[in-house]
Amino acid sequence: MSDRKNVLLVDDDPDFVDAVKTLVEKDGYHVNVAYDGQEGLEKVAESKPDIVILDVMMPVMDGHGMCDQLKDNPDTANIPVILLTAVADHVSTSSYTHRDMLESQAEDYIPKPVEPAELLERIKHWL
Amino acid sequence: MPDCARVLIIDDEQVIRDGCERSLSGNGYSVSKAENGENGIQFLKADIFDVVLLDLMMPGIDGFEVLSWIREHHPSMPVVVITGFATVDKAVLAMKQGAFDFVGKPFTPDYIRIVVKRALEKRALQKETEKLKSEKALDLMTIIEEQSRLKTVFGCMMEAVLITNREGIVVHHNPAAVKVLQIETDPFIGKSLKQSISDQKLVKMVCEALEQAKHVTREFEPGTISRMYLRAHSSPVQTSEGTILGAVTVFEDITTHKMIDQQKSEFVAMVAHELRAPLASVEQMIYAMKAGCSTFEGTACEHLHTRMTARTKELLQLIANLLSLSRLESENIVFNLEAINGNTLLENIVEVLTPQAQNKNIALTLSPAEVDWTFNADFDHIRSAFINVMGNAVKYTPEGGQVEVKSKVSSGLVTIEISDTGIGIEKDSLPHIFDRFFRVKDKTTRLITGSGLGLSVVKKVVEAHNGFVDVVSEHGAGTTFSLSFPLASNSISSNQTQNMSSK
């Protein structure tokens, strides 16, 4: 388990999570999941991932919210974050509305749905 | 000279009377004779005459009295006084009192004819003048009325109107202008537009209309020009030769339009998002299938396949709901109302949902009302509304729970209660459940997907049928939806088609 890299995947759609988990595990990673930003932060503390893949549109705490918290915390600031989303997400449930990619502290940004090859390539790149 | 001009001769001497008659009758005049003042006045009261020949010296009521009577009652009738020899001063007095002319006795037939003719000409001229005067008065009245009408319209219009001259000075405006526009100067009239309204875009717009002699339209956001969203139209005011005298600018309040546009855009964005998210997941699952099926066991593929089918079905349901909602909100919807037996309807729907309930080991029961009840409804719409509510009850109730459907009839109303022992609705979420696309999203509802439109449609349908919906819920304990409808009166037969407007 020690030489397998740890990926944390956070998205509110269970079907999406299952599909991406399948793809990423196939490439040899260990995947943990969470379904909203709050849960995601708890899982980060628990599992200490090497990389976090994060959907923007989620209830309770959205992707931008979770990303900001990770980057503001020196313990987690170095974990690369990849944001995933459909393009028009200005109707967010949390207080972070209409954030530009440019304002975000995330390392990367991929639109949904993600092509498997591209996702895996980006993960490899940022690790 | 009018044919049949009517002449009245008032003279006590028969010779004079007959003489006048002879002289005048032949010339197309009709002559009436009165032998004294009283008689003369009687004639005048009874008939219309064009000229009166009046002897001044008569017994009884004398000529002057008659004259003064005529001046009072027929001021425009010419009176020719007849005087005796050496009474010119009387004649002059009579003239001063309003007589038109005088003849001295004796007079020749020719002479009397000339005098009468002159009097009648004068009368005709007078009539002409009066006619023109009254026509002019009428025109003036019309103009004043017209002006008054325009003034009223101008004053009552909601749209602000400004009139500026060639130099950009405000020369006139209506009351609405003061209400709608932010005017910095007092007075407004007489000052240049630049001074009174600080929005430069407006000044530029009026200049453009003036200089280029064309209509200009611009929109203004709330700001230095007004609190409202405005659309302004400036038009040059030109003479028929093309000289530009100034410009008239009208301002429309488009605040409501803008609000509606904004709501529409937001709705479209929401719809796009709600359609895209599930499709993105389906596509993601297709990728996973391609990658995973060859490597993993059959069950992984089967699971993906099941989920993809479910999500796609849900998407189709979402689209159907969107269409329903759009149709319900349009003014032209036609409902096919028929008398529907309530107990039978509920039985059918419970039957449809039984497999779904059984899959989750949920006890789905129906307690029909003690009486048979009928209500007027559009079968398809009402059926979908019930399926929605009952479907939700089953969806949001965990394994082994219960869903109960009860109906009660009282005072012309039927109430159908759908109660479940499901996850319930939080107090904070309760006011929003009928909002479009609203779905409770937390740990307990994570695996439950839906369009968020079902209850919006239910509410619209129920209300369109003159019914109402009520919800009672406790988070963690369960929810009860109550749908109430007026019952059909016994005299209504089946298969009516009606136009109903949805609210």
Task: Describe what you observe in this structure.
The complex is a heterodimer of chains A (127) and B (503). Chain A has four helices and five strands. Chain A has 127 residues and is α/β, with parallel strands linked by helices. Chain A has a single domain, classed as Response regulator (Rossmann fold, 3-Layer(aba) Sandwich). Chain A has a five-stranded parallel beta sheet with strand order 2-1-3-4-5, with helices on both faces. In chain A, helix 2 runs parallel beside helix 3. The longest helix of chain A is centred in the N-terminal third of the chain and has 13 residues. The radius of gyration of chain A is 13 Å and the shape is globular. In chain A, 43% of the residues are buried. By secondary structure, chain B is of the alpha/beta class. Chain B has four domains: 126 residues, Response regulator (Rossmann fold, 3-Layer(aba) Sandwich); 97 residues, 2-Layer Sandwich (Beta-Lactamase), CATH 3.30.450.20; 73 residues, Helix Hairpins (Orthogonal Bundle); 166 residues, Histidine kinase-like ATPase, C-terminal domain (Heat Shock Protein 90, 2-Layer Sandwich), CATH 3.30.565.10. Chain B has 13 helices and 19 strands. In chain B, the strands form five sheets. A five-stranded parallel beta sheet of chain B has the order 2-1-3-4-5, with helices on both faces. In chain B, strands 7-6-10-9-8 form a five-stranded antiparallel beta sheet. In chain B, a hairpin with a 4-residue loop joins strand 6 and strand 7. In chain B, helix 1 packs across helix 5, helix 11 packs parallel to helix 12 and helix 12 packs antiparallel against helix 13. The longest helix of chain B is centred in the N-terminal third of the chain and has 48 residues. Chain B starts with a strand and ends with a strand. Classes of the chains: A alpha/beta (127), B alpha/beta (503). The interface between A and B is medium-sized, with 26 and 32 residues.
